[in-house]
Write a structure and sequence with these properties.
Order of helices and strands: HEEEHEHEHEHEHEEHEEEHEEHEHHHH
Distance between the termini: 72 Å
Strand content: 15-25%
Strand order of the largest sheet: 5-4-3-6-7-8-13
Bound molecules: NADPH dihydro-nicotinamide-adenine-dinucleotide phosphate
Helix content: 25-40%
Shape: globular
Radius of gyration: 24 Å
């Protein structure tokens, strides 16, 4: 059969099928101009969109990282992911189309590797942070010296935007070393690159968080302050959305954002809500600070998996503070989600199997259901 005859034979079948005809002129094209006047072509076309921008995301292998990489890569932004451990980065590859997610090996002390990661980008996000000191890096190394090297590389290659993720309650005079070093890191970033956008998230909740998973997990909850610390938990998806908006909104350059949820809770209140949602109360042990701090400090030196650090014990005694001058979700036109409305979604896996696939319930229904389960037990 000749090629033409074969094509003619195929044609009617193709026409008869209900496949949508993809036509380039229906795709939405747009040219954006960056802060420094660079034209960026964006073409929207589902997973194969061209986002135009190139973004480097330091700390993408952590909990929050996936929520920004996912948003950027699926909109066609080329994401450069500096990483240090092969296995920690694999889940990010599928966030975007082929070639959208690019990995680069990096060490926080190796300036050349940092420069290599940022030099082709239009925006750099820094999400690197640690709750506890490790054998090779203390909090100052990660939150101050690391930030310094990244900000210097950003300034050297004249990158358009730098978004630095700090922390709520960052304060130079804080009794917690974590908050102190985070505040110092903000200062360093701003002194090297004045247009740095600083983002201070409240304690973040989501599937991989260290908040709900700690309260609902199988181990005993050990605290020092009877869970009295007060904070406004924020949803990881909201923070991801805010970070993405900052890429497209150049008025956010040089601003500080406090990203926190709509409702404040003490840890004890949250613990009670978690208990109700998973139908069990985890054992809570309170150990005085003067005992727990040295124990945590000592254990952290010899145990190689993360446990409650002595600085985290100190942080239990500090309520979250919000800078009233900073911008918030409102300035980004985002309505943050209340943790209460998401508890079922994130905690259903912690329920016993007899409750597992029940739909979300109102308080009244829950009481009735308990009665019903009691009858069939
Ligand atoms: P994670 O601990 O989950 O992730 C931290 C990231 O930083 C990881 O990618 C980790 O890389 C990287 N990192 C840590 N130390 C180093 C180092 N020495 N060298 C290179 N990379 C390093 O943090 P989250 O995703 O939860 O948080 C992101 C940012 O937001 C952090 O700066 C954190 O302090 C801040 N924040 C988080 C809050 C929360 O509730 N989660 C609340 C307030 C602020 P690797 O995977 O290789 O270890």
């Amino acid at each position: 059969r000749s090629g033409a005859a074969f094509t003619a034979q195929l044609r009617p079948a193709t026409r008869a099928s209900n496949l949508p005809v993809v036509c380039r002129r229906y795709l939405n094209e747009d040219v954006r101009i960056t802060r420094t006047g660079k034209p960026i072509l964006t073409v929207s076309g589902g997973r194969s969109s061209i986002g135009g921008y190139t973004a480097t995301i330091f700390g993408a292998t952590g909990f929050l990282g996936r929520y920004i990489v996912n948003r950027l890569a699926r909109n066609g932004v080329t994401c450069i992911i500096p990483f240090r451990e092969e296995m920690a980065k694999r889940h990010l590859k599928v966030a975007g189309d082929l070639g959208r997610v690019i990995f680069m090996e990096m060490d926080l002390r190796n300036t050349a590797s940092i420069e290599e990661s940022v030099r082709h980008s239009d925006i750099v996000y820094n999400l690197i942070g640690r709750d506890y000191p490790t054998k090779n890096f203390d909090l100052e190394d990660v939150h101050v010296h690391g930030v310094e090297r990244i900000a210097e590389a950003v300034a050297k290659y004249d990158i358009d935007r730098f978004v630095h993720v700090s922390s709520h309650s960052a304060n130079l005079d804080s009794p917690s070393e974590f908050y102190r070093t985070k505040a110092k890191g903000e200062q360093v970033a701003r002194s090297i690159y004045p247009e740095t956008t600083i983002v201070r998230p409240a304690p973040v909740f989501g599937f991989e968080d260290r908040l709900l998973n700690r309260l609902a997990g199988a181990t005993n909850v050990i605290t020092s302050n009877y869970m009295q610390e007060y904070f406004w938990p924020v949803h990881s998806i909201d923070v991801g959305m805010a970070l993405e908006k900052m890429l497209h909104d150049d008025t956010t350059a040089g601003e500080t954002f406090e990203l926190y949820g709509p409702t404040g809770y003490s840890m004890a209140e949250l613990n009670e809500l978690v208990g109700k949602e998973i139908y069990k109360q985890r054992r809570h042990i309170n150990i005085p600070k003067r005992l727990l701090k040295p124990i945590a400090h000592y254990l952290n030196k010899y145990i190689w998996w993360p446990i409650h650090s002595s600085d985290e014990v100190e942080r239990e005694f500090i309520d979250m503070t919000v800078d009233p001058k900073a911008k918030t979700f409102k300035d980004l036109e985002i309505e943050p989600v209340d943790i209460k409305s998401m508890l079922y979604e994130y905690l259903k896996g912690y329920r016993s199997s007899q409750y597992y696939d029940l739909p979300p319930m109102t308080e009244r229904e829950k009481r009735e259901e308990k009665k019903y389960l009691h009858v069939i037990d």
